[in-house]
Fold this protein.
Amino acid sequence: MSDEDEFSLEEGRMLIRFARENIEFFLRNNRRIPIPEVIKERFSDNYGAFVTLNKYNVIGNPLRGCIGYIEPTYSLYDVIHKVSISSAIEDPRFSSVSIEEMDNIVIELSILTPPKLLEVDDPKQYVDKIVIGRDGLIAEKGMRRGLLLPQVPVEHGRNWDVETFISQTCSKAWLDSNAWKDKNTKIYSFQAILFEEKEPRGEIIRKYLT
């Protein structure tokens, strides 16, 4: 991600606060908040993005919900307006979040670069093209597609190597874990700018993985 594409810490704070206000308003009123004009003005460019909800101060995997758009099809403010709610109530792996739970949930925002196809002559070459802690991955074969964010292989004690990361991404796409060795499987990489709350409704920081 080039310097001109990066988001400032203040912008990250604005977006996380927008996401939290939107989620909590929806859980109380069953509708999204109107998008503030300052958010529309500052975040009108198209980006893929994911909103992740994590249980605060939980040992092990704290994930409570994670939904996003991979491709930069919509304005960033529109994506966050939609997927912040989806992460709270539409992640099929979990029941809907309650308003009471939001007191013990921290919000993480991942703003994505456009995915790039990794072109290799031999699948073994993926090991030299993928950097753990920098790259997120997408595995695609036919109609099946799965994504894992850059933070997945390094957080919560996972410490995955590249081959494990690719295998897990294939599994996320409902493919065989060795599908990345098949020439008909496409592997894409992307990067992400990350912001997160350190505690519920607390300080918001820029997150670095390496």
